[in-house]
Amino acid sequence: MKLSGWGRYPQADCVVLRPRAIKDLKDALAQGPVIARGMGRAYGDSALNKRATIDMARFNHMLAFDPVSGLLTVEAGVVLGDIIEVFLPRGWFPPVTPGTKFVTVGGMIAADVHGKNHHKHGSFGNFVEWLDVLGPDGEIRRCARAENNDLLAYTIGGMGLTGIILRVAFRMQPVATAWIRQETRPAANLAAAMAAFDAADEWTYSVAWIDCLSRGDQLGRSLLLLGEHAREDELDAERRGTPFSTPRKRKLNVPLDAPTWALNKWSVRAFNQLFYRNGVRASGQSLVDWESYFYPLDGVGNWNRIYGRRGFAQFQCVIPLANSQAGISALLREISGSGQGSFLAVLKRFGRQDSRFSFPMAGYTLALDFPVNPTTLSLLEKLDQITIEHGGRFYLAKDARMKRGTMEQADDRTAAFRTMREKTGVAPAFTSMQSDRLSL
Amino acid sequence: MTKRPVLILGGGSDIGLAIARRFAAESYPIQLAARRPDELEPERADIALRHGVEVTLHRFDALEIEQIEAFFDNLPDTPGVVVCAVGLLGDQAEAEGNPRHARLVAETNFIGPMCALECAAARLAKLNEETAIIGISSVAGDRGRAVNYWYGASKAALTAALSGMGQCYAGSKLHVMTVKPGFVATKMTAGLDLPGALVADPAKLANLVYASFLKKTYTVTPLIWRLIMLIIKNIPEGIFRKFKRNSKHRVAQL
User: Fold this and answer.
1) What are the distances in angstroms from CA B5 to CA A207, A386, B18, B135?
2) B194 Cα distance to chain centroid
3) Which terminus of chain A has a lower count of CB atoms within 10 Å, N or C?
4) How many domains are contained in chain B?
5) Is B56 a domain residue?
6) Rounded to an integer, what distance in angstroms lies between the CA atom of residue A230 and that of residue B40?
7) A399 at interface of B, judged by CB pairs closer than 8 A
8) Beta-carbon count within 10 A of A127 CB
9) Which pLDDT belongs to residue A370?
């Protein structure tokens, strides 16, 4: 069937298997290379394999929970939103969450996702106690800090290329309410935004919506959104008795593909202007429910259709701290100069991270999306070059079009990853269109 | 007041599990009974965690009819609702040539389940509380067709027996309900070439079953299937016989 990532670019005709049992997975492995797929929320071709894409939806059992330590054991196909629905009312929240709750735990590990608390808590992999991986030989290996540590380290952030993740045990965090105390701080330009991140280092959650079409001394103007899990005594009196109940949302839906001309520099510039002005007016503190705070776009079904039927490409890079200001400025100048419309882009300060193949490193990450067309594709190549010149690297979960050489230049861990794949025998068994494209 | 558990016979079946989840969502404890209960441990854990109810596993084989009394004796709690989702589509061609297979289909769909439900009904009625028996039969029992008439006939027997049992316990606090689901996307139908629009999701069927349980409906069939079967049942025999047996022929495959 026709399959794509969330960006709907590229699309490919893939054979999709929907196994029920471990035995079915072993049978599939015996037939040739496969890739596991969760909710298909990686933007590009990370979870596409034309010969055999394995839909893990049926491996969706929650297996155990320890209400003392918060250790939750689940099968890899369990969806983050289900975990929140079950455990938030009991006072537990995922330790790290990406910008959508429609992801599987297996996918969160494969991409080693980060959240707005990366500067404080690191990526999702930090909270993994152990995981079970089905290898190319059909053996299931338990990987933890004390056993099969190499396989654990490479599977976290390994894009599903080390085997099929079957079961995961990770630590949830206790929370007192389902609400976030949010503070909005406008920043007039990039330097101000970075200073604001530094000043807000103690906040658990921080992220900035950045207007990537503003220019001159407004280049990089942002709204910094800070958040803390609210305590019960911070809620309004009438909410205090029921700290985990939040208003039900009406879900919007994008019913059809927007025409490709609907997004242009004028419409996007006008939108960004409104958004920024509104943010400045509304700056200060407020209480926001968990869904609106963490997953604003989940409230709009099929929002990926606003980029039209040709789909869109995400760009997300991280620039190391020493070069962050120069690198991000150069990227923003290139983008605003091109006038290529990207709705609100995201800027975020990362903390330190030491890992084999995960994306984050200490520095600033910039994420934005573009409708796919020849102009934006060539713009993206320029952005690749700027990132490399400033010592940055790219997020594979967002990538749909990077060239092999770009990847190698940007990430000196690529060769070691490739060697590991060959040595352990996983290379011929687990491949995606992305791993083929980048020769991983 | 704590609720009595819901016992699912055929607890490993997709329909049985979906109904279990629906009742668990209403805080009913669940007893899953199946031939190989160990394999259901992930389901047990998942239902218990998601819904915060107690879920227990029990060994049950519908074909071991001498063990049925003992099976009910050994349950830790007497259930208030007993759902039977035991069934075997079998292989029609095999059943035609091999009487053993024919008997297996008849026993798995009718004799075994009905004996178990008789035993359950006697115990539930004795409780003198609001209780229910929910038997999963099939629209295949509404008219015998070339493609699966051993299956269809054994489901027809189950439907008739449940109807009789319902009359038998009328006026008591035990409600007997028959479910005839039509196509459902399950292990049983996996691999069959079915028209997608007519294949229901087990969770959807479970919603219908639960709503009907609350309303004390006698027979539950999705609306579209009531219409389809109305037509099929009324096709004159002479015309009906002109439908050749052909796996591509969707009307024949119902």
Assistant:
1) 48, 64, 15, 17
2) 20
3) N
4) 1
5) yes
6) 39
7) no
8) 20
9) 87
Q: Which domain holds residue B200?
A: 6-253
Contact flag B46-A61 (C-beta cutoff 8 Å) = yes
Query: What stretches of A188-221 adopt beta strand conformation (E)?
Result: 205-210
Q: What pLDDT score was predicted for residue A339?
A: 78
A177-188 pLDDT, tens per residue? 999 999 999 999
- A75 and B43 in contact by Cβ < 8 A? no
Quote the CA–CA distance of A373 and A425 in Å, as a whole number.
Answer: 38
Centroid of chain to Cα A292: 17
Is A326 part of the contact surface with chain B (CB cutoff 8 Å)? no
Neighbours of A348 (CB within 10 A): 24
Terminal alpha carbon distance of chain A: 25
Q: What's the CA gap between A216 and A213, in Å, rounded?
A: 10
Cα(A188)–Cα(A206) distance, integer angstroms: 17
User: Is A64 at the interface with chain B, CB within 8 A?
Assistant: yes
Q: How many helices (H) and strands (E) does chain B have?
A: 11, 7
Residue B253's pLDDT is 42
Whether B78 is in a domain gets the answer yes
* Tens-digit pLDDT profile for residues A123-133: 999 999 999 99
- Supply φ then ψ for residue B9, to 5 degrees: -85, 130
User: What CATH number did the domain enclosing B32 receive?
Assistant: 3.40.50.720
Joined tokens for residue B214: 């609350």
| pLDDT tens column, B128-144 | 999 999 999 999 999 99
Is there a contact between A161 and A153 (Cβ–Cβ < 8 Å)? Answer: no
Q: Is there a domain that residue B1 lies in?
A: no
Angle between helices B41-51 and B14-24 in degrees, nearest 10: 20
ipTM of the complex in this document: 0.88
Establish if B215 belongs to a structural domain: yes
Query: Are the beta carbons of A81 and A43 closer than 8 angstroms?
Result: no
Torsion angle of the four alpha carbons A308, A102, A40, A24, in this order, in degrees rounded to the nearest 10: -150
8 Å CB contact of B49 and A82: no
Tell me the torsion sign for CA atoms A250, A251, A252, A253: negative
For the packed helices A324-338 and A190-199, what is the interaxial angle rounded to 10 degrees? 140
Look at the block and give the residue holding tokens 């055929």: B10
Q: How far is the C-alpha of A427 from the C-alpha of A415, rounded, in Å?
A: 13
| Higher-scoring residue by pLDDT: A234, B250 | A234
Do B45 and A64 count as a contact with CB atoms less than 8 A apart? Answer: yes
